[in-house]
Amino acid sequence: MTEEAEIILIFSSNTKILNAEDLLEEMSLPITLVPVPKEVNPNCGLAISFAESQKEKIMTVLLAADLKPSVAYRRQGQDFSVWAFEPSIN
Amino acid sequence: MIYLDNGATSFPKPPEVIKAINDALAAPASPGRSGHAAALNASRTIHRARKSVARLFGLPDNSRLAFTSNVTWSLNLALNGLGLKTGDHVLSSALEHNSTARPLARFQKEIQIDWEVVPPGPAGLMLAEDFQVRLRPETRLVVLNHASNVTGALAPAKAIKEAIGTIPLLLDTAQTAGSLPMDDYGQWADLIAFTGHKGLLGPTGTGGLWIREGLDFRPLAVGGSGSRSESLVHPDFLPDALEPGTANTHGLAGLAAGVEFLLNVGLDKVREHEMGLTQYFLENIVNIPGLSIIGPGPGVASRVATVSVVLEGWSSSDLAASLEKGYGIMIRSGLHCAPLTHQFVGTFPGGASRFSIGYFNTLEDVQTAARALAELAAHTGHRG
C-alpha cells in the first residue's frame, strides 16, 4: 500500500507559520510543523505539513485569512514536486 | 518598603510573569532556528508574546510587530529606519525623553534635519493644533512621547494624528502601555514603540516596535534571522527584518504573561485604579506649603500616574533620600533622562522628585507618601 502523499507549505516568515498553526488548530485541522525539507529548499525555517486529503479544507482556511504560502510542495516518499495551491486564473 | 518608581520599572511583577520566565529558563530555547520540539516551543512562546501585544494595541497584523530589548532601541530603530535626510522637518513634543531627543539632536547635528520642538499648552498639556500649525511641505515625521515621564501629562495622540494627516506619527508609549486602554491604536497609529518592563509588567530587556503596512524602513542591524539563510541579503519582511539574532525568549515569556495579566484584569480597571490613587495623592499634596506640583494638578484627567514635585528648601535628591530613609518610600529624583521637559517646566537643572504609581500600589501607599511629604515640608525650616 502506498503511503498517503503530504503537502508541505513554506511561508516567508515563521510568524506567518505560527499564525497559520493557531488558526488551523482552532479549526481542528491536523497539521505538523516540520523543518523545511532541504531536498527542495535551502530555507532553514519551518514548514507546515499535512496529509494531502486535507488540502482543500486547509487551503481554503489559509487563503481566506490571507496566509498565503510562498511555495508549496507535494511529497510522496522521497519524491517532491512543486504544488500549485491556487486554482489557475484561466 | 513602598515602591513608587513604576515609571522606571514596575514592581512587583505578577507571579504569572515570574513563573513564565522560570519555565522558559528551564527549557531549551532557540526560537526559529531548528525544527525540534524545544525550538518549536520557544518559537510559540515568542509568538504568544506577539499575539498578546497585538491584542493590547489592536494591531491588524502581528507580523509587523518586532521585538527589541527596550523602547530606546525601538525608537532608534524607527528613527534610523525611516531614512531621514538633510532638510527634512521633524516635529516633536517638548516633553520628549532622551530616547528620542538624543537621536533627533544627533540627526540635527550630523545630517542637518530641521527638528522643531512643539511647546506644551496650558497646564503643560500638548495640543493637537500646535502640531498642525507647524506642518510644512517638508515635514517628514512627528515624534510624540505619549505621556511625559516627568509631569505625567498625557498627549492627545489620536487627535494629533488626525491633525497631521498622512505624516507618520512615531508614538513612544513607554509611560502609557499597560496603563490605559489602547486597543484601537492599531487602527490609526503609524509606529508604536513600547517597553516591556514598565506598565506591561514584564522583565527588563523586552520591548518592541510596530510599523503599519506601507511605511518603508531600513533595519539598523542585520544578521541571522532563521529565514532565507541561503542569501547574504537580510530579509526585508517583518518581523524578521528587525529581529536579527536569537530573540530574548525568556524575557518575552515574561512579557507575554504580563500583558495577558493586564488583559485579564482589563485595562480600564488598571486605569481606574492608577488614576484613583493619583488623584487622591494630588489632592492630598496640593496644599502642602512650599510644595509645587510639576505638571497637571488635581482634577486633570489627561495624565498618567506620574507626579513630580519640587519642595522649597530641598534638592530633589535630598527629598528622595529622606523619603527612603524616614519612610521606606522609593522614588526617583533628578532629571529623569528628560532635560527638555525640565527646561520647559522650569525645573532644569535641579530636577524634581518623581512619584510614579503602579497597578500594585495601594491607597495606603499614597496616603503614607502624602503624609511623608507634609511632614518633611513642615521640617523644612530646620534644614541648614
CATH fold annotation of the largest domain in chain B: Aspartate Aminotransferase, domain 2
Count of all domains of chain A: 1
The name of the CATH architecture of the largest domain in chain B is: 3-Layer(aba) Sandwich
Fraction of helical residues of chain A? 25-40%
General shape of chain B: globular
**Strand order across the largest sheet of chain A:** 2-3-1-4-5
The largest β sheet of chain A comes out as: 5 strands, antiparallel
Radius of gyration of chain A: 12 Å
At the first level of CATH, the class of the largest domain in chain B is Alpha Beta
What is the topology, as strand order, of the major beta sheet of chain B?
A: 2-8-7-6-5-3-4
In DSSP terms (H or I, runs of 4 or more residues), the helix count of chain B works out at: 12
- Main interface: chain pair and counts: A-B, 16 and 23 residues
The CATH level-2 architecture of chain A is identified as 2-Layer Sandwich
Number of strands of chain B: 13
Tally of strands of chain A: 5
Determine the mean pLDDT of chain A.
89
Strand content of chain A: 25-35%
Structural commentary:
Chain A is an alpha+beta fold and 90 residues long. Helices cover 26% and strands 28% of the residues of chain A. Chain A contains two helices and five strands; from the N terminus they run βαββαββ. In chain A, strand 4 and strand 5 form a beta hairpin. The relative contact order of chain A is 0.28. With 384 residues, chain B is an alpha/beta fold. Chain B has two domains: 124 residues, Aspartate Aminotransferase, domain 1 (Alpha-Beta Complex), CATH 3.90.1150; 251 residues, Type I PLP-dependent aspartate aminotransferase-like (Major domain) (Aspartate Aminotransferase, domain 2). Helix content of chain B is 38%, strand content 15%. Chain B has twelve helices and 13 strands. Chain B has a seven-stranded mixed sheet with strand order 2-8-7-6-5-3-4, sandwiched between helices. The mean pLDDT of chain B is 95. At the A-B interface, helix 1 and strand 2 of A face helix 2 of B.
